[in-house]
Specification:
The chain is of the alpha+beta class. It contains 3 helices and 2 strands, in the order H-H-E-H-E. It has one domain. A two-stranded parallel ribbon has the order 1-2.
């Protein structure tokens, strides 16, 4: 398993589960969930796109 797949296992599983259950939006608490580097961010966005999911990020003033 590659480093991305290990580091973002929960994110990958969330995308797979959303696709399987017909969910079309994913909400993340903060953008750092998508990656720490440009390559990780691009990989996460590609996985969202491949699953047909739209991304929503909680606004900064709503984060606790």
């Amino acid at each position: 398993m590659d480093e991305y797949a290990i580091k973002f296992k929960a994110f990958i599983e969330m995308c797979q589960e959303a696709k399987q259950t017909g969910v079309n939006h994913v909400i993340v608490h903060h953008p750092e969930v998508l990656g720490d580097t440009y390559a990780e961010l691009v990989e996460s966005l590609n996985r969202l796109a491949d699953a047909g999911l739209m991304l929503m990020i909680l606004p900064q003033n709503k984060r606790g």
